[in-house]
Amino acid sequence: MTEILIISLAVSLRVVSNPLGNVFQKQLTQKGSHPLWVNFLTYLLLAVLCLFGLMLLKRIEISHEFWLYSILGGVFGALGNGLLVKALQNGNLSILGPINSYKSIVGLIFAAILLGELPNAWGIVGIGIIIYGSYLVLDTTEERFTIALLRNKEIQFRIGAMILTAIEAVFVKKVILASSPAVAFISWCIFGAVFSFVLVLLFQIEIKTEIKKFGTQSFTKLLYLIICIGLMQLSTNFVFENMKVGYALSIFQLSIIISVLLGYRFFQEKHILKKIIGSAIMIAGSVLIILMKST
Fold it and tell me: In whole angstroms, what is the distance from residue 180 CA to residue 13 CA?
């Protein structure tokens, strides 16, 4: 019973902290900060905090697999989160949040390939329901639920972010299996900082210019963002330790309703009722995927 309560708490933290973090990411980019710079600062400050955490951890044996999956997770995480912040810069949170429900489908596919976690009939039905729910949400866009929608840059960035972070989730699970949730979190922060800095250099971001843009208000929002992302990843790691990746990614989709409501509250986004209905249907599909666990 105690374990169930702890897992429920971890899931609740993940469900709330993720969309709240998206709000702060969007607000920072709207104030002129480059998405890749915001991505790098988030990883960097978390990595600095993790250096203190290293002193509190007991010595553990680190395998070659740990380093391999940490590096792969860092690459996919930095790329995926960079694309996510870019998508949020101009995209609607109430649209981009629900699109993330497809992450459970991507997670199922790669978890089947890399972890041997195979879906069953419930999973297939759940996938169909998620697609139907997304039709209602995406039908509120200017392009509606058509092929033309894929020409929307923000949608492209969000889909790319979703695929990359779904793959990252599998590598994070591998790192957890090779160490522990706490060590995996430290690895996630440090390798994420390294590879997100590489992206800053590759895209020739003017660091001095970005630093000048950061006022007191932006720094406060950055601190809130770090708290949200830190809680999000810590709770994610704990859930991954106790649940299969496909199931975890599915139950995390409860956050899409919060994304829709936050989009309305902070950015005055429209067609909220239809988006909520579509999101609820997508959540129902995710719940069916979770039912695979008991069949």
Answer: 19
Residue 9 CA to residue 15 CA, distance in Å, equals 10
Inter-residue contact 248 to 93 (CB < 8 Å): no
Do 8 and 248 contact (CB within 8 A), yes or no? no
CA 140/CA 153 separation, integer angstroms? 16
Residue 61: other Cβ atoms inside 10 A: 7
Number of CB atoms found within 10 A of residue 66's CB: 20
Spell out the residues 6+ positions from residue 21 whose beta carbon is closer than 8 angstroms to its own: 225, 228, 229, 232
Tell me the pLDDT tens digit for each residue of 232-266.
999 999 988 887 776 777 777 777 778 878 887 77
Looking at residue 24, its pLDDT comes to 93
Tally helices (H) and strands (E) across the chain.
13, 0
Which residue type sits at 279? Answer: S
- Between CA 242 and CA 30 the distance in angstroms is 37
Residue in the structure block whose two tokens are 């897992």: 7
The candidate with the shortest Cα–Cα distance to 252, out of 2, 12, 6, is 12
* Span 34-41, average pLDDT: 93
243 φ/ψ sector (left φ>0, alpha ψ -120 to 50, else beta)? beta
Q: Is residue 40 very low, low, confident or very high in pLDDT (cuts 50, 70, 90)? A: very high
- The mean pLDDT of the chain is 81
Tokens 């981009």 belong to 96
Measured at the CA of 18, the angle between CA 12 and CA 19, to 5 degrees, comes to 105
**Entry pTM:** 0.82
* Tokens 């607000």 belong to residue: 27
Write down the pLDDT at residue 224: 95
CA gap 223, 202 in Å, rounded = 26
